[in-house]
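FAQ
Q: What does a multi-component entry look like?
A: The components come first, one per line:
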Amino acid sequence: MSNFISNVKKQFKFKHIATWVIVAAVAVVLVIMSESGLLNRSTIGLLSRIAYSIILAVSLNLVVGFLGELSLGHAGFMCLGAYIGTFVASLLRESIDNKLLVLILAMLVGGLVAAFFGFIIGLPALRLKGDYLAIVTLAFGEIVRNIFKNLEIFGGAMGYNSKTYNQKDLFVIAFVVVIIVLILTQNLIRSKHGRAITAIRDNEIAAKAMGINVTFYKLFVFVVAAFFAGIAGVIYGHFTTPVLYTTFSYNYSIEILVMVVLGGMGSINGSIIAATLITVINFVLQSKLSGGLAAIRLLVYALILIFVVIFNNAPALKPIKERFSIHNLKEKRIAKKKGTIVDDAAEWNRIETKVKMDSILTPDLPHNENVTPDKEDKSPKEVK
Amino acid sequence: MSTIMDGLSLGAIYALIALGYTMVYGIAKMLNFAHGDIIMVGAYAILTTLELTGNPYIAIAVSIVICTVSGIVIERLAYKPLRGASPLAVLITAIGVSFLLQAIAQLIYGSKSQSISLPDFGKVVIGKYAINVSTIITLVVGGLIMAGLTLFVKKTNTGRAMQAVSEDRGAALLMGVNVNRIIMITFAIGSALAAFASLFYLMQIPSITPTLGSMPGIKAFTAAVIGGIGSIPGAMLGGVLLGLIEKICLSIPAISPYTTAIEFSLLIIILLVKPIGLLGKQIREKV
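Then the predicted structure of the entire assembly, as tokens:
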């Protein structure tokens, strides 16, 4: 036990808790502002939206950024949470008087139901790779929508008439949930399990060879992400009425994906910032742009997705990025102060673990005309 | 009977789209999410040329050209910079392109659905059944295109080069195949097929929206996966099967609202039981 405590003390660093502490501080400021009447109704509504968007983005980031599998059905889990959660809440309200307790129970039930389906969708994830899995999750989202559209107890095509929660209280609860989710995910990622998850992302075969239980971790991430998405859905259900199946379309899943990609895959802080930004942009544009101009929003999303991904991943842009990256500049300056020489070509602190076969086999390698075939080629690419 | 004919012609449309998916997947090893939206581009091309000239044949030709060109442009601008990057990055870019096409269509044509008047071919009566001539045209032309494509891939040099690239890109490159050119040709053929698919689609449902392509696109991908992705006969088989299943489900009132759910559940079940699809080849993973 004492060993554990000393371990905790040793590893305790402010930067590890900075994210949620800052979010909590912002939330407290917002609560004070709303209590003193500085915020109007629509702003408070916006805050709830930001809260559940953050939960969605962070949970999708677990799957896309940390596990490295693409899920296009995140809105489906949210849909499950929203319908089931509000339905359970309406049942519980008859027997329990405490509204807060009802909401918490509804969140748990909605989250668990979504997690159960996350488990079911995680099962194909074990056998399928990348593209196939993306299409299965997409299919799952469509199935969920199609079924809720036709179930009469959930209002069918008219949507389920949920009871909304008091807006002023809801956003406080939502932010508490956000902070809990952030603490949980950040601790998960820094734990042994988190390292295992990123190891699977980087090289599944190598991870397996190191004795990581790939099956367990893939399922685990899917279940956790679905659970969080379900909770976000319950918050959504208590925020808007009616809960309508059309909201949770494929486009909404993509919107969450845009948040993750814009914020940076594998960056929790990025997800938080991007989720906030996109929700605010949506909120502002929704009232400004109507009719045909609403497509501009779609256009912006599309361009964000394409440019961010190409910028981050294009092999041709790599040297340019490395030259101008802030991180490298900083390191060079520190090194200059210390008087050490920085060798740009060699990266001794980073050892490539994975031989990138694709990059060797890619047909876009620059054709080097000077190299004659009989001369032995000892360029660094071959040595790697 | 009429249900089966409808199912077959819908299946032919799905098969045409699925061929585009499966060829691109087989050769470029990427899932071209924007393929469904190429159908939408083709549909709007037909609509606009028909309004300008009034001649359906010119409209079809223009639509094929526009689809082919847009397929090539998309490949050059969006996918080529990412060759060699992780599959996830390519997939997300493809989704972005799909969104981009929808957004552009919405900006130009608005989000309302527009109706189109293609020449009506009427019906023929065979025995006691009346069958739309357009259904027959879809089936015959679709069948011809697929037969032609199979011949092209099997017999011509370019087709053989395609097979080589899909088998082993590195080896094909060493054998002197211009891989970039082959990938471009694949995109061009796939997009041209999408133009035909959009024509047949409009013959069945004569209204156009910017999101017209996404549902048939996803379903055609389902068909491609059911048949075994990367396999050309598989795409045809999967497309026809899925078209039949959809029309049969729609004709039974008790389950017709759940048609989409049934189709996609079928996809998930097939992927769980036989992940390579009905006619797919097993690919061993290399370390």
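Q: Is there any commentary attached?
A: Sometimes. For this entry: Chain A touches chain B through 59 residues (CB under 8 Å).
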